[in-house]
């Protein structure tokens, strides 16, 4: 009888131990099967239908216009240098709230030299961005509450006032060009323009001297970044809509479609600082 009860107790202990070993995944653990399901639910970056309110931003997707420049400030001028390219903003004293204005820009590339006279009263150079092929420079100039973007050829000194061109094409409320970015092939400049309460997106072709605009219903409060993909056939837009809420959108300008990809946190927004023009400050 003792042998019977000893064997029975041993059998119960074996069953209990076996049951515990098959249920090791507690509330804080994830089983391999659950992990596989989680992986299956991770949809691609360009599919906004995954139900997530936060976009899985992938910086490796975007083209970064690499540049290495130095900037020198002094009372009479600002000097920007990048290799054999030198841009000098010549300052002039005047009476009034703005004690100094920019009177001209001097452009030098190797043995070539050009001078661009400034008719408006620009107070400072906001930013400078050299095209990837180093043939054109974009310079943003501040004036009052707005800004003007000049595109200057480093081969012949020819300049284009983008704001004037926009107004000539019928656009209104072009108080400033908020941000801009060169395409990988240097042929197109993506830019955001508008007034303090609106932002619209456009592309300017240097070869054709013509514009392509995002759909008219895609208006934002402000635009922080325009991000070219590596192929140069689409741009991602980081814009504010509604106020204080930045989202990521994809503009396929060949199909003329805008696709919302998701929200961006402040941390993700800060990670994009090297994907736009270099802001100089006053």
Explain what the structure shows.
The chain has 282 residues and is mainly beta. The chain has four helices and 18 strands. It has helices at 2-21, 32-40, 162-168, 266-270; strands spanning 70-74, 77-82, 85-93, 100-109, 112-122, 124-130, 136-143, 146-153, 159-161, 176-182, 188-194, 200-205, 210-213, 222-228, 235-240, 246-252, 257-263, 278-279. A five-stranded antiparallel sheet has the order 1-2-3-4-5, with no helix packed on it. A five-stranded antiparallel sheet has the order 9-8-7-6-18. The longest helix has 20 residues, at 2-21. The protein starts with a helix and ends with a strand. Residues 1-52 have low confidence and may be disordered.
List keywords for this structure.
43% strand, five-stranded antiparallel beta sheet, mainly beta, disordered N terminus, 282 residues, 15% helix
């Amino acid at each position: 009888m003792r042998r019977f009860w000893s064997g029975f107790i041993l059998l119960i202990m074996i069953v209990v131990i076996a049951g515990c070993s098959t249920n090791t995944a507690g509330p804080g653990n994830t089983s391999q099967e659950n992990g596989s399901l989680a992986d299956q639910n991770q949809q691609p970056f360009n599919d906004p239908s995954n139900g997530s309110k936060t976009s899985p931003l992938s910086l490796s997707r975007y083209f970064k216009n690499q540049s290495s420049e130095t900037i020198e400030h002094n009372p009479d001028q600002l000097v920007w240098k990048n290799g054999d390219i030198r841009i000098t903003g010549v300052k002039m004293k005047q009476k009034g709230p703005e004690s100094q204005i920019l009177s001209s820009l001097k452009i030098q590339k190797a043995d070539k030299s050009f001078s661009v006279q400034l008719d408006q009263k620009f107070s400072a150079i906001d930013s400078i961005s050299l095209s990837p092929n180093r043939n054109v420079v974009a310079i943003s100039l501040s004036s009052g509450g707005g800004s003007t973007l000049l595109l200057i050829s480093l081969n012949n000194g020819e300049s284009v006032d983008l704001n004037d061109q926009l107004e000539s094409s019928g656009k209104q409320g072009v108080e400033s060009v908020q941000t801009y970015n060169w395409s990988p092939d240097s042929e197109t400049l993506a830019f955001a323009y508008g007034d303090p309460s609106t932002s619209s997106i456009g592309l300017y072709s240097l070869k054709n001297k013509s514009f392509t605009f995002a759909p008219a219903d895609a208006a934002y409060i402000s635009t922080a970044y325009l991000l070219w993909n590596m192929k140069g056939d689409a741009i991602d837009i980081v814009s504010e809509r509604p106020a204080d809420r930045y989202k990521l959108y994809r503009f396929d300008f060949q199909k003329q479609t805008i696709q919302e990809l998701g929200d961006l946190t402040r941390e993700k927004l800060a990670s994009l600082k090297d994907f736009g023009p270099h802001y100089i400050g006053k």
